[in-house]
Amino acid sequence: xxxxxxxxxxxxxxxxxxxxxxxxxxxxxxxxxxxxxxxxxxxxxxxxxxxxxxxxxxxxxxxxxxxxxxxxxxxxxxxxxxxxxxxxxxxxxxxxxxxxxxxxxxxxxxxxxxxxxxxxxxxxxxxxxxxxxxxxxxxxxxxxxxxxxxxxxxxxxxxxxxxxxxxxxxxxxxxxxxxxxxxxxxxxxxxxxxxxxxxxxxxxxxxxxxxxxxxxxxxxxxxxxxxxxxxxxxxxxxxxxxxxxxxxxxxxxxxxxxxxxxxxxxxxxxxxxxxxxxxxxxxxxxxxxxxxx
Length: 293
Hints:
MetI-like fold; two-stranded antiparallel sheet; 293 residues; 2 strands
């Protein structure tokens, strides 16, 4: 056996555990869920093949799914633009040589590493309608008709959105900071010599050269927002009246509360289709606004 062959065998030997784990627990699970989406199975009785019935029922007749889809889209529209805009503004401030810059960087990123369950438990107290800090703050600035965040369907999703923005905006900030630090300072110096002010430098240099980072931030935020679960699960329990029930929460309920594994798998694959379509559209039209060097 040659040295090259022995090195190849050794490489496969070290790769085999990870590759086997991927085949069994990732690819295998995905393949099984796709097969289950065509079955009616409650894990207790024998499975029954129903073809596309789960998908037809889901799209055409399931009003609860229509509601959770609407809720999820509302969450996406409420979190993604805010995370992107705030992340960019924070990054623009934190790349400058300001006092206590390290402290502010740590403060912005700290919520990202805090477990979502712990953060949600704290926000349950903050948004408490009777003695929470949020309503105390609103009352102090003149609001009298204070929202009951967890019992009013009009306000419950807002609480989930605010928690999610606070929790994840630091990640977008770090990505934008990396993108900003990759822009050559010589471009700004040339623009200033030509008489460009800060606003024009931002519009004609920063935004175009930052567009690949912006594209990446938007894509990952949309993907993660469509998969929101733990915030709604801990903070509101999907209520009141399904006002904060999301697609992934609906998958969880169907699979592990109502034991409708086939139907839950169909919901999961429909969610995959929605995320794939949203991502495909973004990649399809990125050439119109994303500029690569």
